[in-house]
Amino acid sequence: MADFDEARLHLLVAKMLGDLGGAYSVPTVRIGFRLGLFDALHEGGPATVAELAARAGGLAERYVREWALAQAASGYLDYDAAGERFSLSPEQAMVFGVKDSPVYLEGAFDLAAAMIEGEPKVEAGFRDGSGVAWGESAGCLFCAVGAFFRPGYVNNVVQSWLPALGGVQDKLKAGAKVADIGCGVGFSTLLMAEAYPQSHFVGFDFHEPSIAQAREHAAAHGVADRVRFETAAAKDIAERDFDLITVFDCLHDMGDPRGCAAHVKGLMKPDATWMIVEPIAADRPEENIGNPVSRLYYNASTMICVPTSLDQEVGEALGAQAGEAKLTALLHDAGFSRVRRATEGPFNMVLEACA
């Protein structure tokens, strides 16, 4: 065995223990969300094991005790040893209790579980180069992805992303025709529709189960009179004359993002805008290494984004960390003369493309 630095080894092992502790927490955290344990603490305040088990609908106390201690050991709950009571701090509540918080992470834990479920299919792709169809790697991958992105959309789409685009907000307030391509289960489409009641929206996605859920959401929100959801791949969309086209975190998932970009240009009015929301990333891989956000995205890209793209026509497999320079070049090649980064956040960058 080659000589090694014992201090560096200890640091690596300590890091691995922290990482494994987080990985081991995925099933217990998901149980806490599903059984309402986090909600019971958030809504009812500090509780003993007996009180928490009762609040959550009469759960078995022995399970609840071990669960609560596991969460406290992870730093996800606070524990008062003197009173033997568990609680959510305001900061913990932002992650586990407040559903419209920008850092509410129920969907993130579900997404982690979905990636584990999809592991055998992705491993097969490593061996033969094949892809894995969207939604086929895990039972409800598309549900988990929708839930993962929802907090970011709730807190950014209307508040900062759309206002950062030149002249778009005025058009939406007056009444615009909008296409949301790759809309998934419709969260992004419905957020825009509720904020701009004079405008009409069409959500497109090639995944029929996602569109079915999106239609249910539209009906539940009472906006079905001006929001439609249609099953269609990006390059198959025939409807035209849109004032605004949006794609949220999905251009890199497409098999043929260049063909999609060229097709989108033909769907737009001459003065229209295309808003492309993509995972934030530096242009060079070495600049992303060591970044915790890029770490999440590279792993998700390995398990979801690249396999999804490889399953489709062309299979360019841009990956979730393509970077602004590569995306901008792609848009210029498709005929967009003006491309700029309109705004950004800790998890996304927003590009604006105009003819």
From TrEMBL:
Residues 29-95 form the S-adenosylmethionine-dependent methyltransferase Rv2258c-like winged HTH domain. One of its GO terms (biological process) is methylation. GO terms for molecular function: methyltransferase activity. It holds the Pfam family WHD_Rv2258c. InterPro entries: Methyltranfer_dom, SAM-binding_MTase, SAM-dependent_MTases_sf, WH-like_DNA-bd_sf, WH_DNA-bd_sf, WHD_Rv2258c. Residues 173-280 form the Methyltransferase domain. Keywords: Methyltransferase, Transferase. This is Class I SAM-dependent methyltransferase. It comes from Sphingomonas gilva.
